[in-house]
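We modelled the chain as a single entity of 542 amino acids. Its sequence is:
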Amino acid sequence: MPYAPWWRDAVMYQIYLRSFRDGNGDGVGDLRGARAGLGYLTALGVDGIWLSPCFPSPQRDHGYDVADYCAIDPLFGDLAEFDRLVADAHRLGLKVILDIVPNHCSSEHPRFAQALAAGPGSAERSWFHFSDGRGPDGDQPPNNWRAMFGGPAWTRVTEPDGRPGQWYLHMFTPHQPDWNWRVPEVADQFDQVLRFWLDRGVDGFRIDVAAGLYKHPDLPDSPDPAADERARDAINPLAWNQPEVHQVWRRWRALCEEYTARDGRERTLVGEVSAPTAAEQARYVRPDELHQAFYFDLLRAGWDAKTFHERIDAALRDIVSSGAAVTWVLNNHDQQRTVTRYSQVNDGAEAAADEERGAARAGAAALLLLALPGSVYLYQGEELGLPEVTDLPAEVLSDPIVAGTGRPEAGRDGCRVPLPWSGAAAPFGFSDAAADRVWLPQPDWFAAHSVQRLRSDGDSVWHMYRDALQLRRNLAPLRGDSLEWLQVSAETLVFRRGEGFVCAVNFSDAPVPAPVAGPPLLSSRPCDDGKLAAGTTAWWIA
């Protein structure tokens, strides 16, 4: 079989740092805690970690508001601790991907402070999108764009002389001004940032808002500004997917290739790309651009065989056929947890029955994902079958989406509650701190999902993940990009990979005949008497 780079079929595990594990007892996860959890991840069987931002930050968006791209926030540790994490991960055979945020920074970044002090027309202001307002007194925003986290996408500043002045663009919150990538010095700055972390040994970068760096040069009005904040994943076509963004990824790809040529270690760039179609996303993963881009279409799909088939087929047709590999995801730190998402039914079922159904479907979806050709990124806690925490007290909610929209249900705190590791009561081994000092409270029912409990139960969802990852690594048919559909119906999807591997998914709420005689190699739920149970995925070697 031809040589394939490690990232084409790697299974990566997202560590949302403040919620993974606390190593210093302050109630917030950190680098020391992440190091302590590396052995757990090797036992699970993943190939590496994606580490959420740990740069100095006011933490108004939990690290996605960066004040210094070349240091570690003391909340999480220091550079020495980061270096130990990378060294330990590499010693265990794990890759380390670092989250980078090139679309915007913190309003406390020194460059933005300099821009505010320098005044209109200065070189310092050109690093950001400053513009005069509309109206006779300039008291109206330069255009009608809305921020993704709610409210106008523009904020007016007070000039050094004390008078109301220009406006600056922020596609997320006023605390996150957008960089102006049309200024060459911005690109030069990020070259230095990448080199700083590559020199420290990281294996690549997850790129936040990878489609959004360039805005339309004229900053015209949006034809439907309300759409930009109606949905969490809205795409403003004037601020997203501008053609010039591709030159950034060619530049970054060349920089990574330079390092690979130097030491033989392959790096990867994986983009958070919000593109309307798989064909448009494929443009981001051309041979000289990003190595990978998250394919969000299954994450956004309901539990429906037709939808899953169409979206898998589109990815295989438009992305794989271009020479790239699909990077599959079902969840991340910005989305409602899969168990809860798949529990949303409108048939009058009891809440307990809904959660049971959601857990079954989440396990089936994960096993399907791990059978597909390409790479997979898992979000921490999915292997524990964690549902969303939907009843957090209002006073602990810290997601800026809640403040920006006034809609607690739109927030992301519920998928970010710290992981339960052991024990019967909070903080469940996450921290040595008292439970009331943990940054988000953990519900009592987390005890049923603790790492300790699930690893001791051979029939748990944790063992399904572990077994699937072992088989994925060891089964020859699961290498390469081949996939052949054997059956597509309103109830089931069945496909073959390579010589003899068969995967079947039952999307219905009743058992269906199994497509292969004999017991499956692995299944997300027990299957008896030649039947594939409701809401179940199974693997066979036939």
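As a brief sanity check on the tokenised model: Confidence is low (pLDDT under 50) at residues 348-353. The first strand starts at residue 11 and ends at 15.
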